[in-house]
Amino acid sequence: MTQKIRTRFAPSPTGFLHIGGARTTLFNWLFARHHKGTFILRIEDTDEVRSTQDSVSAILESIRWMGMDWDEGPLDNDRDQGPYGPYFQMKRLELYQKYIKQLLQEGKAYPCYCSKEDLEAMRRLAQLEKRPPRYDGRCRNLTDKQKRDLEAQGKKASIRFRMPDEGVTVVPDMIRGDVSFENKLQQDFVIQKTTGGPTYNFACVVDDHHMEMSHVIRGDEHLSNTPSQLQLYRALGWEPPKFAHLSMILGPDGSKLSKRHGATSVLEYKNQGFLPEALRNYLALLGWSTTDSQQLFTPEELIARFDLEGCQKSPATFDPVKLTWMNGEYLRKLPVPELVRRASPFLEAAGLKPNGGPQLERAVALEHEKYKLLTEVPGLVDFFYKPLQFTPKAMDKVLRAPGVKQVLLDLAEALKDFAPFTDKALEECIRKFCAERGLKTGQVFHPLRAATTGRTEGPTLFLMLEVMGRDMVLSRLRETAARLN
Ligand code: GLU
Description:
Elements: E1 6-9, H1 19-34, E2 38-41, H2 53-65, E3 73-74, E4 80-81, H3 93-105, E5 109-112, H4 116-128, H5 144-152, E6 158-161, E7 168-173, E8 177-182, E9 190-192, H6 200-210, E10 215-219, H7 226-236, E11 242-246, E12 249-250, H8 266-271, H9 276-284, H10 299-305, E13 316-317, H11 320-333, H12 336-349, H13 360-365, H14 376-381, H15 392-399, H16 404-415, H17 423-437, H18 441-453, H19 461-468, H20 470-483
Parallel strand pairs: 1-2, 10-11, 12-13
Antiparallel strand pairs: 3-4, 5-6, 6-9, 7-8
Protein backbone atom coordinates (compact mmCIF):
# COMPACT_ATOMS: atom_id res chain seq x y z
CA MET A 1 0.00 0.00 0.00
CA THR A 2 1.48 3.33 -0.99
CA GLN A 3 -1.20 5.51 0.58
CA LYS A 4 -0.47 6.64 4.13
CA ILE A 5 -2.70 4.60 6.41
CA ARG A 6 -4.80 6.62 8.84
CA THR A 7 -7.53 4.96 10.87
CA ARG A 8 -9.69 6.18 13.69
CA PHE A 9 -11.92 5.13 16.50
CA ALA A 10 -14.67 7.70 16.92
CA PRO A 11 -16.71 6.95 20.03
CA SER A 12 -19.74 8.91 21.12
CA PRO A 13 -19.13 9.53 24.84
CA THR A 14 -22.57 8.47 25.97
CA GLY A 15 -21.58 5.48 28.09
CA PHE A 16 -18.83 3.00 28.78
CA LEU A 17 -16.62 1.37 26.18
CA HIS A 18 -18.35 -1.90 25.40
CA ILE A 19 -17.07 -5.10 23.86
CA GLY A 20 -18.21 -4.03 20.38
CA GLY A 21 -16.45 -0.66 20.63
CA ALA A 22 -13.33 -2.30 22.03
CA ARG A 23 -13.27 -4.69 19.07
CA THR A 24 -13.65 -1.73 16.66
CA THR A 25 -10.82 0.11 18.42
CA LEU A 26 -8.64 -2.97 18.28
CA PHE A 27 -9.15 -3.59 14.55
CA ASN A 28 -8.39 0.05 13.72
CA TRP A 29 -5.36 0.03 15.99
CA LEU A 30 -4.03 -3.29 14.66
CA PHE A 31 -4.56 -2.21 11.06
CA ALA A 32 -2.70 1.06 11.64
CA ARG A 33 0.14 -0.63 13.52
CA HIS A 34 0.41 -3.42 10.94
CA HIS A 35 0.81 -0.88 8.13
CA LYS A 36 2.96 1.52 10.16
CA GLY A 37 0.19 4.07 9.84
CA THR A 38 -1.46 6.45 12.27
CA PHE A 39 -4.25 5.65 14.72
CA ILE A 40 -6.49 8.51 15.74
CA LEU A 41 -9.01 8.84 18.51
CA ARG A 42 -11.82 11.29 17.85
CA ILE A 43 -14.55 12.09 20.35
CA GLU A 44 -17.95 12.46 18.70
CA ASP A 45 -19.60 14.50 21.42
CA THR A 46 -22.26 16.22 19.34
CA ASP A 47 -25.12 14.69 21.32
CA GLU A 48 -25.33 17.55 23.82
CA VAL A 49 -27.79 15.73 26.02
CA ARG A 50 -26.20 12.32 26.33
CA SER A 51 -22.46 13.10 26.08
CA THR A 52 -20.63 13.26 29.40
CA GLN A 53 -17.10 13.92 30.62
CA ASP A 54 -17.29 10.76 32.71
CA SER A 55 -17.86 8.73 29.58
CA VAL A 56 -14.87 10.35 27.89
CA SER A 57 -12.70 9.44 30.89
CA ALA A 58 -14.03 5.89 31.02
CA ILE A 59 -13.44 5.37 27.30
CA LEU A 60 -9.88 6.71 27.47
CA GLU A 61 -9.18 4.60 30.55
CA SER A 62 -10.54 1.49 28.85
CA ILE A 63 -8.49 1.94 25.70
CA ARG A 64 -5.35 2.69 27.70
CA TRP A 65 -5.93 -0.31 29.93
CA MET A 66 -6.21 -2.50 26.85
CA GLY A 67 -2.77 -1.25 25.84
CA MET A 68 -3.81 0.53 22.67
CA ASP A 69 -2.08 3.84 22.17
CA TRP A 70 -3.29 6.58 19.85
CA ASP A 71 -1.06 8.90 17.88
CA GLU A 72 -3.48 11.80 17.71
CA GLY A 73 -6.45 12.64 19.88
CA PRO A 74 -7.41 13.41 23.48
CA LEU A 75 -4.88 13.63 26.28
CA ASP A 76 -7.63 13.76 28.87
CA ASN A 77 -11.29 14.61 28.76
CA ASP A 78 -10.69 18.15 27.64
CA ARG A 79 -7.30 18.51 25.95
CA ASP A 80 -5.99 16.85 22.83
CA GLN A 81 -3.00 16.84 20.55
CA GLY A 82 -2.18 16.25 16.92
CA PRO A 83 -1.88 18.21 13.67
CA TYR A 84 -5.52 17.68 12.66
CA GLY A 85 -7.17 18.76 15.90
CA PRO A 86 -9.20 19.57 17.76
CA TYR A 87 -10.31 15.96 18.15
CA PHE A 88 -13.48 16.78 20.07
CA GLN A 89 -16.26 17.49 17.60
CA MET A 90 -17.86 20.17 19.76
CA LYS A 91 -14.66 22.18 19.27
CA ARG A 92 -14.99 21.97 15.49
CA LEU A 93 -18.37 23.66 15.05
CA GLU A 94 -17.06 26.45 12.82
CA LEU A 95 -15.77 23.95 10.33
CA TYR A 96 -19.13 22.20 10.11
CA GLN A 97 -20.93 25.50 9.70
CA LYS A 98 -18.71 26.43 6.80
CA TYR A 99 -19.79 23.35 4.86
CA ILE A 100 -23.42 23.68 5.89
CA LYS A 101 -23.36 27.16 4.39
CA GLN A 102 -21.72 25.86 1.22
CA LEU A 103 -24.28 23.08 0.75
CA LEU A 104 -27.14 25.53 1.35
CA GLN A 105 -25.74 27.98 -1.18
CA GLU A 106 -25.35 25.26 -3.76
CA GLY A 107 -28.93 24.08 -3.16
CA LYS A 108 -27.66 20.68 -1.99
CA ALA A 109 -29.20 21.19 1.42
CA TYR A 110 -32.26 23.08 2.64
CA PRO A 111 -33.85 24.26 5.88
CA CYS A 112 -36.68 22.13 7.20
CA TYR A 113 -39.19 23.67 9.61
CA CYS A 114 -41.09 20.52 10.50
CA SER A 115 -41.73 20.17 14.19
CA LYS A 116 -41.36 16.98 16.22
CA GLU A 117 -45.14 16.58 15.97
CA ASP A 118 -45.08 16.96 12.17
CA LEU A 119 -42.38 14.29 11.93
CA GLU A 120 -44.24 12.02 14.31
CA ALA A 121 -47.41 12.34 12.22
CA MET A 122 -45.39 11.49 9.10
CA ARG A 123 -44.07 8.43 10.84
CA ARG A 124 -47.51 7.25 11.91
CA LEU A 125 -48.90 7.71 8.44
CA ALA A 126 -46.07 5.67 6.96
CA GLN A 127 -46.80 2.98 9.52
CA LEU A 128 -50.49 2.93 8.57
CA GLU A 129 -49.63 2.70 4.90
CA LYS A 130 -47.03 0.05 5.68
CA ARG A 131 -44.18 2.10 4.17
CA PRO A 132 -40.78 2.55 5.78
CA PRO A 133 -40.91 5.79 7.79
CA ARG A 134 -39.20 8.45 5.82
CA TYR A 135 -39.21 12.24 5.72
CA ASP A 136 -41.60 13.18 2.91
CA GLY A 137 -39.58 16.11 1.58
CA ARG A 138 -42.24 18.73 2.24
CA CYS A 139 -39.72 21.52 2.95
CA ARG A 140 -37.63 20.75 -0.13
CA ASN A 141 -39.05 23.48 -2.30
CA LEU A 142 -40.12 26.24 0.07
CA THR A 143 -39.93 29.72 -1.43
CA ASP A 144 -37.93 32.44 0.28
CA LYS A 145 -41.18 34.05 1.37
CA GLN A 146 -42.49 30.83 2.89
CA LYS A 147 -39.23 30.46 4.81
CA ARG A 148 -39.45 34.05 6.07
CA ASP A 149 -43.02 33.52 7.20
CA LEU A 150 -42.17 30.31 9.04
CA GLU A 151 -39.27 32.02 10.75
CA ALA A 152 -41.50 34.95 11.66
CA GLN A 153 -43.74 32.41 13.41
CA GLY A 154 -40.72 31.50 15.49
CA LYS A 155 -40.13 28.15 13.80
CA LYS A 156 -36.64 26.77 14.12
CA ALA A 157 -35.09 25.06 11.12
CA SER A 158 -32.95 22.00 10.90
CA ILE A 159 -30.91 21.55 7.74
CA ARG A 160 -31.52 18.55 5.53
CA PHE A 161 -29.35 17.11 2.83
CA ARG A 162 -31.04 16.57 -0.53
CA MET A 163 -30.57 12.91 -1.45
CA PRO A 164 -30.85 11.90 -5.11
CA ASP A 165 -34.36 10.64 -5.97
CA GLU A 166 -33.18 7.95 -8.30
CA GLY A 167 -30.40 5.50 -8.88
CA VAL A 168 -28.39 3.55 -6.37
CA THR A 169 -25.53 4.34 -4.05
CA VAL A 170 -22.96 1.60 -3.99
CA VAL A 171 -20.87 1.17 -0.86
CA PRO A 172 -17.64 -0.57 -1.81
CA ASP A 173 -16.89 -2.45 1.38
CA MET A 174 -13.58 -4.18 1.97
CA ILE A 175 -15.23 -7.00 3.91
CA ARG A 176 -18.61 -7.34 2.21
CA GLY A 177 -17.84 -6.31 -1.35
CA ASP A 178 -20.21 -3.86 -3.07
CA VAL A 179 -23.42 -3.18 -1.19
CA SER A 180 -26.11 -1.26 -3.12
CA PHE A 181 -28.70 1.04 -1.62
CA GLU A 182 -31.62 2.39 -3.63
CA ASN A 183 -31.66 6.16 -3.36
CA LYS A 184 -35.43 6.42 -3.46
CA LEU A 185 -35.57 4.48 -0.21
CA GLN A 186 -33.17 6.88 1.49
CA GLN A 187 -34.39 10.09 3.01
CA ASP A 188 -33.22 13.67 3.03
CA PHE A 189 -31.39 13.31 6.34
CA VAL A 190 -30.73 16.06 8.85
CA ILE A 191 -27.17 17.39 8.79
CA GLN A 192 -27.67 20.25 11.25
CA LYS A 193 -30.04 20.08 14.17
CA THR A 194 -32.36 22.93 15.18
CA THR A 195 -29.87 23.69 17.95
CA GLY A 196 -27.26 24.49 15.29
CA GLY A 197 -25.12 21.45 16.07
CA PRO A 198 -24.15 18.96 13.37
CA THR A 199 -25.52 15.44 13.23
CA TYR A 200 -23.32 12.36 13.37
CA ASN A 201 -23.52 11.61 9.62
CA PHE A 202 -22.43 15.10 8.70
CA ALA A 203 -19.69 15.76 11.28
CA CYS A 204 -18.27 12.31 10.63
CA VAL A 205 -17.83 13.01 6.91
CA VAL A 206 -16.33 16.47 7.43
CA ASP A 207 -13.88 15.08 9.98
CA ASP A 208 -12.94 11.90 8.17
CA HIS A 209 -12.12 14.08 5.18
CA HIS A 210 -10.25 16.78 7.11
CA MET A 211 -8.38 14.29 9.23
CA GLU A 212 -7.38 12.49 6.02
CA MET A 213 -8.64 9.09 7.03
CA SER A 214 -7.60 6.40 4.59
CA HIS A 215 -9.88 3.73 6.10
CA VAL A 216 -13.08 3.82 8.08
CA ILE A 217 -13.36 0.55 9.98
CA ARG A 218 -16.50 0.36 12.12
CA GLY A 219 -19.34 -1.84 13.29
CA ASP A 220 -21.87 -3.05 10.78
CA GLU A 221 -24.64 -1.07 12.48
CA HIS A 222 -23.18 1.88 10.54
CA LEU A 223 -23.38 0.25 7.12
CA SER A 224 -26.81 1.81 6.59
CA ASN A 225 -25.34 5.28 7.26
CA THR A 226 -22.68 4.86 4.63
CA PRO A 227 -24.82 5.64 1.52
CA SER A 228 -25.83 8.96 3.13
CA GLN A 229 -22.21 9.68 3.96
CA LEU A 230 -21.06 8.76 0.44
CA GLN A 231 -23.59 11.17 -1.04
CA LEU A 232 -22.17 13.90 1.19
CA TYR A 233 -18.65 13.18 -0.03
CA ARG A 234 -19.94 13.46 -3.60
CA ALA A 235 -21.78 16.73 -2.89
CA LEU A 236 -18.71 18.24 -1.27
CA GLY A 237 -16.43 17.04 -4.05
CA TRP A 238 -14.29 14.89 -1.76
CA GLU A 239 -12.72 11.50 -2.28
CA PRO A 240 -14.22 9.08 0.29
CA PRO A 241 -12.04 6.83 2.44
CA LYS A 242 -12.19 3.05 2.09
CA PHE A 243 -14.86 1.41 4.21
CA ALA A 244 -14.82 -1.84 6.16
CA HIS A 245 -17.84 -2.81 8.25
CA LEU A 246 -17.08 -5.41 10.89
CA SER A 247 -19.36 -8.33 11.51
CA MET A 248 -22.00 -8.18 14.20
CA ILE A 249 -21.19 -9.71 17.59
CA LEU A 250 -23.72 -12.20 18.94
CA GLY A 251 -24.07 -13.63 22.42
CA PRO A 252 -23.74 -17.39 23.00
CA ASP A 253 -27.50 -17.79 22.46
CA GLY A 254 -27.33 -16.29 18.97
CA SER A 255 -28.99 -12.95 19.76
CA LYS A 256 -27.19 -9.62 19.47
CA LEU A 257 -24.66 -9.25 22.30
CA SER A 258 -26.18 -7.25 25.15
CA LYS A 259 -26.25 -6.85 28.92
CA ARG A 260 -28.30 -10.02 29.17
CA HIS A 261 -25.16 -11.95 28.26
CA GLY A 262 -23.19 -10.62 31.24
CA ALA A 263 -20.50 -7.98 31.47
CA THR A 264 -20.43 -5.71 28.47
CA SER A 265 -18.09 -2.89 29.46
CA VAL A 266 -14.33 -3.27 29.17
CA LEU A 267 -13.74 -1.99 32.70
CA GLU A 268 -15.97 -4.74 34.05
CA TYR A 269 -13.61 -7.25 32.45
CA LYS A 270 -10.70 -5.46 34.07
CA ASN A 271 -12.43 -5.71 37.45
CA GLN A 272 -13.24 -9.36 36.90
CA GLY A 273 -9.55 -10.17 36.64
CA PHE A 274 -8.96 -10.43 32.91
CA LEU A 275 -5.60 -9.47 31.47
CA PRO A 276 -5.73 -6.79 28.80
CA GLU A 277 -3.55 -8.81 26.44
CA ALA A 278 -5.86 -11.81 26.78
CA LEU A 279 -8.94 -9.70 26.09
CA ARG A 280 -7.17 -8.20 23.09
CA ASN A 281 -6.26 -11.61 21.74
CA TYR A 282 -9.81 -12.83 22.25
CA LEU A 283 -11.45 -9.78 20.66
CA ALA A 284 -9.13 -10.01 17.65
CA LEU A 285 -10.77 -13.34 16.83
CA LEU A 286 -14.27 -11.85 16.81
CA GLY A 287 -14.67 -11.47 13.08
CA TRP A 288 -11.08 -12.09 12.05
CA SER A 289 -9.01 -15.22 11.63
CA THR A 290 -5.84 -16.47 10.01
CA THR A 291 -5.96 -19.20 7.39
CA ASP A 292 -4.35 -21.60 9.86
CA SER A 293 -6.87 -20.66 12.59
CA GLN A 294 -4.18 -19.70 15.10
CA GLN A 295 -5.77 -18.92 18.48
CA LEU A 296 -3.04 -17.53 20.72
CA PHE A 297 -0.87 -14.67 19.56
CA THR A 298 1.85 -12.65 21.16
CA PRO A 299 1.11 -8.91 20.89
CA GLU A 300 3.76 -8.62 18.17
CA GLU A 301 2.33 -11.54 16.22
CA LEU A 302 -1.12 -10.03 16.32
CA ILE A 303 0.17 -6.84 14.74
CA ALA A 304 2.24 -8.75 12.21
CA ARG A 305 -0.58 -11.04 11.12
CA PHE A 306 -3.63 -8.77 11.29
CA ASP A 307 -5.13 -7.53 8.05
CA LEU A 308 -8.58 -6.82 6.71
CA GLU A 309 -8.39 -9.79 4.33
CA GLY A 310 -8.89 -12.09 7.31
CA CYS A 311 -12.12 -10.35 8.34
CA GLN A 312 -15.37 -12.14 7.73
CA LYS A 313 -18.84 -10.76 7.23
CA SER A 314 -20.74 -13.50 9.03
CA PRO A 315 -21.58 -12.69 12.66
CA ALA A 316 -19.08 -13.56 15.37
CA THR A 317 -20.11 -15.19 18.64
CA PHE A 318 -18.86 -13.86 21.94
CA ASP A 319 -18.06 -16.86 24.10
CA PRO A 320 -17.19 -15.98 27.74
CA VAL A 321 -16.02 -19.53 28.39
CA LYS A 322 -13.41 -19.31 25.66
CA LEU A 323 -12.35 -15.86 26.83
CA THR A 324 -11.86 -17.20 30.36
CA TRP A 325 -9.89 -20.18 29.05
CA MET A 326 -7.69 -17.82 27.07
CA ASN A 327 -7.13 -15.63 30.12
CA GLY A 328 -5.93 -18.71 32.02
CA GLU A 329 -3.49 -19.47 29.22
CA TYR A 330 -2.10 -15.95 29.49
CA LEU A 331 -1.90 -16.11 33.28
CA ARG A 332 0.09 -19.34 33.13
CA LYS A 333 2.60 -17.71 30.82
CA LEU A 334 3.27 -14.76 33.13
CA PRO A 335 6.45 -14.99 35.18
CA VAL A 336 5.48 -15.21 38.86
CA PRO A 337 6.72 -11.73 39.88
CA GLU A 338 4.66 -10.25 37.06
CA LEU A 339 1.65 -12.36 38.03
CA VAL A 340 1.93 -10.99 41.57
CA ARG A 341 2.22 -7.45 40.25
CA ARG A 342 -0.92 -7.88 38.16
CA ALA A 343 -2.78 -9.54 41.03
CA SER A 344 -1.77 -6.93 43.60
CA PRO A 345 -4.84 -4.67 43.24
CA PHE A 346 -7.02 -7.72 43.88
CA LEU A 347 -4.89 -8.84 46.82
CA GLU A 348 -5.14 -5.37 48.29
CA ALA A 349 -8.87 -5.23 47.72
CA ALA A 350 -9.17 -8.53 49.59
CA GLY A 351 -7.33 -6.94 52.51
CA LEU A 352 -4.35 -9.29 52.31
CA LYS A 353 -1.26 -8.00 54.04
CA PRO A 354 1.60 -10.29 53.14
CA ASN A 355 3.67 -9.47 56.20
CA GLY A 356 4.02 -12.18 58.74
CA GLY A 357 3.35 -14.93 56.20
CA PRO A 358 5.46 -16.52 53.51
CA GLN A 359 6.82 -14.50 50.65
CA LEU A 360 3.90 -13.62 48.40
CA GLU A 361 5.56 -14.83 45.22
CA ARG A 362 6.12 -18.29 46.66
CA ALA A 363 2.54 -18.50 47.88
CA VAL A 364 1.04 -17.31 44.59
CA ALA A 365 3.27 -19.64 42.57
CA LEU A 366 1.81 -22.71 44.31
CA GLU A 367 -1.43 -22.46 42.32
CA HIS A 368 -0.06 -20.90 39.14
CA GLU A 369 -1.57 -23.68 37.01
CA LYS A 370 -5.03 -23.12 38.40
CA TYR A 371 -5.82 -19.43 37.97
CA LYS A 372 -8.15 -18.42 35.18
CA LEU A 373 -8.83 -14.94 36.57
CA LEU A 374 -6.72 -12.58 38.68
CA THR A 375 -9.67 -12.30 41.03
CA GLU A 376 -9.10 -15.94 42.01
CA VAL A 377 -5.62 -15.28 43.37
CA PRO A 378 -6.53 -13.85 46.81
CA GLY A 379 -8.93 -16.68 47.63
CA LEU A 380 -6.29 -19.29 46.89
CA VAL A 381 -3.53 -17.79 49.04
CA ASP A 382 -5.34 -15.94 51.81
CA PHE A 383 -5.08 -18.80 54.31
CA PHE A 384 -1.37 -18.00 54.60
CA TYR A 385 -2.05 -14.45 55.71
CA LYS A 386 -5.28 -14.55 57.66
CA PRO A 387 -5.94 -16.08 61.07
CA LEU A 388 -6.93 -19.73 60.78
CA GLN A 389 -10.52 -20.18 59.81
CA PHE A 390 -12.04 -23.60 59.22
CA THR A 391 -14.51 -24.55 56.55
CA PRO A 392 -17.34 -26.65 58.01
CA LYS A 393 -16.06 -29.60 56.00
CA ALA A 394 -12.53 -29.24 57.39
CA MET A 395 -13.79 -29.01 60.95
CA ASP A 396 -16.63 -31.50 60.99
CA LYS A 397 -15.50 -34.14 58.53
CA VAL A 398 -11.76 -34.10 59.04
CA LEU A 399 -10.65 -32.52 62.31
CA ARG A 400 -13.37 -33.83 64.57
CA ALA A 401 -12.66 -37.43 63.58
CA PRO A 402 -11.50 -39.62 66.50
CA GLY A 403 -7.79 -39.52 67.24
CA VAL A 404 -7.07 -36.45 65.13
CA LYS A 405 -6.11 -34.23 68.04
CA GLN A 406 -3.34 -36.63 69.07
CA VAL A 407 -2.12 -36.96 65.47
CA LEU A 408 -1.75 -33.18 65.28
CA LEU A 409 0.18 -32.97 68.55
CA ASP A 410 2.44 -35.85 67.47
CA LEU A 411 3.04 -34.18 64.12
CA ALA A 412 4.03 -30.95 65.84
CA GLU A 413 6.46 -32.93 67.93
CA ALA A 414 7.88 -34.80 64.92
CA LEU A 415 8.36 -31.63 62.89
CA LYS A 416 9.70 -29.49 65.71
CA ASP A 417 13.33 -30.07 64.88
CA PHE A 418 12.99 -31.75 61.53
CA ALA A 419 15.34 -30.48 58.83
CA PRO A 420 15.47 -29.64 56.04
CA PHE A 421 11.94 -28.28 56.10
CA THR A 422 11.48 -28.90 52.39
CA ASP A 423 8.95 -30.55 50.14
CA LYS A 424 10.61 -33.91 49.51
CA ALA A 425 12.11 -34.34 52.95
CA LEU A 426 8.79 -33.47 54.61
CA GLU A 427 6.97 -36.01 52.50
CA GLU A 428 9.41 -38.74 53.45
CA CYS A 429 9.26 -37.80 57.09
CA ILE A 430 5.47 -37.76 57.25
CA ARG A 431 5.09 -41.02 55.35
CA LYS A 432 7.42 -42.59 57.88
CA PHE A 433 5.33 -41.01 60.64
CA CYS A 434 2.25 -42.81 59.23
CA ALA A 435 4.03 -46.15 58.87
CA GLU A 436 5.37 -46.07 62.42
CA ARG A 437 1.91 -45.56 63.82
CA GLY A 438 0.13 -47.93 61.47
CA LEU A 439 -1.96 -45.06 60.08
CA LYS A 440 -3.13 -44.73 56.49
CA THR A 441 -1.67 -41.67 54.78
CA GLY A 442 -5.16 -40.19 54.44
CA GLN A 443 -5.56 -40.31 58.23
CA VAL A 444 -2.62 -37.94 58.51
CA PHE A 445 -2.46 -35.94 55.30
CA HIS A 446 -6.06 -34.71 55.50
CA PRO A 447 -5.91 -33.54 59.13
CA LEU A 448 -2.52 -31.97 58.45
CA ARG A 449 -3.90 -29.91 55.59
CA ALA A 450 -7.09 -29.01 57.44
CA ALA A 451 -5.20 -28.02 60.58
CA THR A 452 -2.68 -25.79 58.81
CA THR A 453 -4.95 -24.19 56.19
CA GLY A 454 -8.48 -24.58 57.54
CA ARG A 455 -9.47 -26.21 54.24
CA THR A 456 -9.80 -29.60 52.66
CA GLU A 457 -8.42 -28.52 49.30
CA GLY A 458 -5.45 -26.48 48.20
CA PRO A 459 -1.98 -26.61 46.80
CA THR A 460 0.09 -29.78 46.85
CA LEU A 461 0.53 -30.52 50.53
CA PHE A 462 4.27 -30.79 51.17
CA LEU A 463 5.29 -27.90 48.99
CA MET A 464 2.61 -25.88 50.73
CA LEU A 465 4.13 -26.80 54.12
CA GLU A 466 7.57 -25.82 52.90
CA VAL A 467 6.26 -22.42 51.77
CA MET A 468 4.36 -21.95 55.02
CA GLY A 469 7.52 -22.59 56.99
CA ARG A 470 8.16 -24.42 60.22
CA ASP A 471 7.00 -21.73 62.65
CA MET A 472 3.60 -21.27 61.14
CA VAL A 473 3.07 -25.00 60.61
CA LEU A 474 3.87 -25.78 64.23
CA SER A 475 1.85 -22.98 65.70
CA ARG A 476 -1.18 -23.87 63.56
CA LEU A 477 -0.96 -27.57 64.46
CA ARG A 478 -0.95 -26.65 68.14
CA GLU A 479 -3.62 -24.00 67.79
CA THR A 480 -5.94 -26.44 66.00
CA ALA A 481 -5.30 -29.20 68.51
CA ALA A 482 -6.17 -26.80 71.30
CA ARG A 483 -9.41 -25.90 69.57
CA LEU A 484 -10.37 -29.56 69.43
CA ASN A 485 -10.84 -29.78 73.18
N1 GLU B 1 -19.73 7.97 16.94
C1 GLU B 1 -20.07 6.80 16.20
C2 GLU B 1 -20.34 5.68 17.19
O1 GLU B 1 -19.94 5.76 18.34
C3 GLU B 1 -18.92 6.45 15.26
C4 GLU B 1 -19.29 5.71 14.06
C5 GLU B 1 -18.18 5.72 13.04
O2 GLU B 1 -17.15 5.09 13.33
O3 GLU B 1 -18.32 6.36 12.03
O4 GLU B 1 -20.97 4.70 16.86
